Amino acid sequence: MGTQIKKVSEIPGPKSKEILARRAAALPSGLGKSTEVVVEKAEGALVWDVDGNQLIDFAGGIGMVNLGHRPQVVVDAIKDQLEKYIHTGALVTTFEPYLDFAEMLNGITPGDFPKKTLLACSGSEAVENAISTAKYYTKRPAVICFEGAYHGRTMLTLSLTSKYGLFKRGFGTFAPDIYRFLSPNLYRKPANMTDDEYIDYCIERFDQNLISHVDPSAVAAIIIEPVQGEGGFIPVPKRFLEKIRKVCDEHGIVFIADEVQSGAGRTGKFLAIEHSGVIPDIVTMAKSIGSGMPISATTGRAEIMDAPHLGGVGGTYSGSPLAVVAAHATVKEINTPEFLAKATHVGDIIVSRLTAMSKKFEVIGDVRGLGAMLVVEFVKDRTTKEPDMDFAMAVIKKCVSNGLILIRAGLYTNCIRFLPPIVITAEQLNEGMDVIENAIAAVLAERK
């Protein structure tokens, strides 16, 4: 055992249990929690609970802290801004931090064309702004999204989201004119197809759906995650992204890349879609661009972003000065060759360790992702690929009890996702991977 995890009590300990009881009494039962960790403080890739246990964080606040917990450059930027003003409202006044950050994103997102940026508070709002703007620009009603997608929890973004039982059950009716197409999942392709044949099949289905589901002339936007997040960290093949770009160009459709989870340097490039060379019209960003502060961005072609009438976009909290200075400091650190190389390196270590585990444990069906955005998928049988969600949950519980914070993912909730802060040390990373390997072995032994 390494030295980064330090337990002084069981997890959860007595103080944590008291607070968890208060949570159960005070908060709605529908507000899920992936672990029973009650946080006292956090820094870098470490979290301390209220009982004094020191844990390693592989969940990163669901991909919120690529730059680590409380990076000093971000803390300093927030403190400095606090001494000036907290809120005057971008709908009322103009303040330079908003402009500084917008100009930064306009310059570093893909595409050699004029861009503009609209800020908001959450990933869902960023997607809402992108869709609404695309509809306004095209004067069309329909939106194409994909199976396995996750885009948020507002009415429109929940309508775009898959995984009905977890996210959508009981919350209908949903937004109209949304059409869900097949997205390639190479792990679950038909056994008789090669990868290329399966991608060809998905492209053929795409074309068929443009006849049977919706005519392109009615489509305002096609939105896709370059790496599906909640769907199970499934990278979208380059040829499929190129197909979307081609259809959008041919029919005047707005191509939206949802980079809320896959962006901010997580995959070894600032945005995951950069790996493909495909250039979207609009990009949505959130999560780690603000190091945990509530901020999101919708950045796109200037002529599209300028389409809504004066006063048609914005919000009271959107572009909060505190969040904006945090995001500017964060992205400045993230969008460097050194940080992006570190993300790739972290991912390489995780893949190497998980690949070695897959040779030992038949319950591991797949290891996949891009850069440091990775999952391990558990199955009951490697041939049938029947999902084993109970095994994934058992491993997570055992890991958390031993000081490693993890969360699940995947359409079947049978995957464990890896979103550690990119600033994690090699010692912390390998100790965390040791905990996972030991947990898998222990759960398997308990099953016998």
From TrEMBL:
Keywords: Aminotransferase, Pyridoxal phosphate, Transferase
Phylogenetic lineage: Bacteria, Pseudomonadati, Bacteroidota, Flavobacteriia, Flavobacteriales
Source organism per UniProt: Flavobacterium restrictum
The keyword Transferase belongs to this UniProt entry's keyword annotation: yes
GO molecular function: identical protein binding; pyridoxal phosphate binding; transaminase activity
Protein name, entry field: Aspartate aminotransferase family protein
Entries under CDD domains matching the protein: OAT_like (cd00610)
Top-level taxon of the source organism: Bacteria
Cofactor (UniProt): pyridoxal 5'-phosphate
One Pfam family it belongs to: Aminotran_3
Claim: Coiled coil is one of the keywords in the record: no
Membership in a protein family: Belongs to the class-III pyridoxal-phosphate-dependent aminotransferase family.
